[in-house]
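My main concern about presentation is that the manuscript never shows what a single data entry looks like. The format is easy to grasp once an entry is in front of the reader. For illustration, here is how one protein appears when written out as sequence plus structure tokens:
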Amino acid sequence: MHGFAELIVPARMANPAPPSDLLLVVHGRSGGEVPSEFELLAAELRKQRGCRVILQCLTAATSADQAQHLEPAPLTLVPLFQLPGHHVRVDLPAIAKHWRSCGWPLRRLPFLGAWPQWQGALAQALSEAKGQGLQPQLLHHPLSGALAMRYPQYLQQRLGAPCSPWTAYTQPSQNLLLVPLAVAANRLSEALNAIDWPPSSQLWPPLLQQSRFRLVLMEQLLSLP
């Protein structure tokens, strides 16, 4: 589908300038809790990039105040979202505007689920699963809006696996591999964990709890100028 596969994460060019600071925007849990996957990712990036890595959690009321309380510098906004839902379409432009209004030179990357490298890692993992006789089923939380509704259809074609809202999935099959489209632990992954699936079924953990996806994301973020 035009618009999803063509988004490219820029690679670091030969430049003596220090790397930009990173603003990792995540959804978070109720009460502003940040899933440990994101905390660990931020800590490792600080160590390896040698720059500030700022976490902005959408469920934390005071998270946006960081734009005013920190010294402005070149900043790259990294939206760690798998799906182009309301947060990607509405909240992210407002967040970028806010940081820029506070004097931060800011560039925005596409949402994580649109990165070709991320999609390639998913395609490879699902291909390996199929080779083991498993039947992948992609599950996502309910979506609204034309763009958001097109994205699961695109993923279904790109990854060669059915993709549907988890609330609409009612047809268990043998050797089923359930793939929640969750970057980190959230209500979707918890809801799926609570279901008594048939013994022949397997349930993937959130993507950043799997080493192959964490390494892909780290590699891309470390390559940013």
